[in-house]
Structures are given as C-alpha cells and as structure tokens.
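Researcher: Next sequence.
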Amino acid sequence: MDILAIWLGKLTLVLLRATGRRGTALPGLLVEKIFPAFLARRLSRLPGGVVVVTGTNGKTTTTKMLATVLSQKFRVLTNDTGGNFVRGTITAVLQQSDWLGRTPADIAVFELDEAHAVLFCQVHQPEHLLLLNVLRDQLDRFGEIDTTAQLLGKVAAQTSRHVVINRDDPRLVKLAAGLSAEVSYFGVVPGLRVLFPTDEEMYGGTVAISELPAAVELVSVELAMTTELSLRIGDSIEHLTLRAEGAHNAQNAAAAAALAVALGLDPATIASGLRAVEPAFGRGQSFDLDGRRVVLQLVKNPAGFRQSLRTIDGLSPAATVIAINDDYADGRDMSWLWDVDFAAGLSGHPSTHEAGDTPDAQQVKSGWLVTSGTRAADMAVRLQYDEIPTALVEPDLTDAVRQAVSHVKPGETVVVFSTYTAMWSLHRALLRMAGG
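Model: Next structure:
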C-alpha cells in the first residue's frame, strides 16, 4: 500500500516541477487524503524517532543545522526547506523515499509551524522536541504570544524522550514543569543576553538572566562578513565560523548543538557539522551578480526583523532593499512593522531624534535604500517616521533588486530584507540573474 502512496506523491512532484512549480503541499495533500495512515506508518519505523523543531523564529535554519550535524552519524529524513505543515512532512517522506517504496532513514528532523506541531502530534508523538522561542508573530494567525506558548506546551506534553528548551525564554521554561520527557536547556552567556530579547525585553522590560544550567551555551559571537562564534558544549569550548550571517544564527547553532548533545553526539562532531551548514533557503543566502554580492534575509515579525537588521553592521551594504508583501502567508496585518526600530538598525541613531537630527545618506548604514513589494509605499512611509531617507519606491521586486545592484560597484554588497512570499519571487529572480 505504501508504495502506491509513494508513487502517487513522486509523480505529483514530477508534474509540479515540469510546470515550473516548487510547492510542497499538493503531494502531501493527495497522499494524506487517499492514504491517511501513510505518514504514521513510515515514522513508526524510524529507529531514532522524530525530532520536532518549533518556535517563532529560526525554525528553518535550526532544522538545517541539526539535520546536517546529525547526518554525520545517522541517515536523516528532513523538511529543511521550509514545508513546515503536516503535509510538508509527508512530502519530505515522499521526496526521500525511492521508487521501490523504501525510506532510507534512521531519524527524522522536522520543522513545524507552532499550530501544525499540535496537529502533527495527532499523527505521531515526537520522541524529541526543540523549543526555540515565543515571540509576537502574525497576530491574524496566532493571536497573542501566550496562545502560542500554550500550543507549544501541548507539543511538549506529547513528547516522549527529550525536550530541549531555550532557558532565556521564560514562557518556554514554564513548560518544563510536569513533563514526562527528560528536559535540558540551551542559552547564551549573560553578556550576550541583550542581543536576544524576549518580547517584553524588546519593548523596554528588564533583561532577565537565567540560572538554569545549559547543555550548550553561546559564549561569544562576532559579526563581520562571516559569523564567528564560540560554543560551550558540555565542558568543551568550540570555535567556529558559520556561513549564514547574524547573531540570531549563532543562537540557532547553540539550539541545534543542544539537541545533538541529547542524541549522544560529541562536541567535536557537532562543531564539525555546524561548520558545514549552508544557509537555509532565503535565510542569509548569497548570490553573485556581476561581481556584486546580494544577501537575501527573510523577515516576518518584529524580533526577527530587528535581529536581521544587525547583519548590516557586518555586511556594510552599499544598497539595501526592503521588500514587503501582505499575502496570506506573510500575514495580512502589517502593523508589526511599527514595532521594528529601523532608526537603530539602518542609521545607528535611536528611534527618537533631536530636532534637525535627520540622518543623511552618508549616515545611513544601509546605503542606497529601496522599498519594494505590494506594501512598498507603506514601508517608505514607515521609514519616514524613523527619519530614514528612501531613495526609491519600486513595487516590482525584480526591478527593485536590478536597480539596487546597478547602483553599487563590483565588490560591494546589496542586502535584501524580504517577507515570505516576496522571498520566493526574489529567490527565483536572483537565480535567473546569477545564471543559476
């Protein structure tokens, strides 16, 4: 029976690719409807069980990091390209199965949207769980963050073996009480806590320092053209360079390392795997366009955007594009943009200026600034309130990037901050422009 499901799913994937579509939902949807027990049967055969990675920010990158690290010891089944609904996990199984019906894997590592993680538990109770953070996200989908925390608590209660928690997120730490699974933590040293604020801290609350012991701790991070960091893994200090920019990716590395520790990997193996990780789709990916470097960064909520803006200091872009769409997958409610401190991120000035202290083009760290996407004009207005000058408002995504690239010299960098649906369009355009 399973081989029929696999053939159906794989043929659907072939047809999608033949028509130039890259979606992951349709194959999973068809198999889910026609063979409803397929996913449960496949996952129950994995000797290492299933790892679920969830939280507001960092799921895709952390999943890719963890899958890469674990692949040094296990055959890993994963959906690390972002198909984070239950149907996306079905499609991942279909993609990684062969035409004879075999799924060569020891363990699965699945990124799951917070709400769909609860639905996934109705199909298979995960053996391991990695909880990254709870931050204000798409209010029109999730509501307030306490609601999201409750969803994650349901997933944690269903996890059978081990739950790894961000010790610096009080809402997640509260979930540890009463769990039947073993619990361990990851975190950052006190001196770095200000770089990773909780929702309350981001809006002016006191930065709290956790005293919980961490299996893995981010000790240092330095941002330049690459991300240099040090992790304490058990009693060992490992120094490494990540290929994806940003302090947030250093924290993601600590999270992935902590789950790898729970699965028995040693510090040197974990560090080796992290060094090999390529940037996840749209999360710090770089493209070469006629000698100009273009870096694509996904943004989708206030905390994530603030973290991504910090990459500007290391990348020193000559031009920046901010591409904002408001399709369903982005969230229709774009009011969250008013909670991002663009003044601090783009100009280095606080969000309130003295009269007459408007930054000029030379003072703006982002360089030549373009807004794009369906909400290009709204984004330009938002920047105006933080006294950030916008050089160009170009709704067409491809034209916006072309103009930004043409504005800079060979050897210089363009950074593109993009919401989800804009990222897909930009990724395709950048591949074409780069000749990929």
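Model: DSSP finds 18 helices and 15 strands in the chain. The two ends are 39 Å apart (CA to CA).
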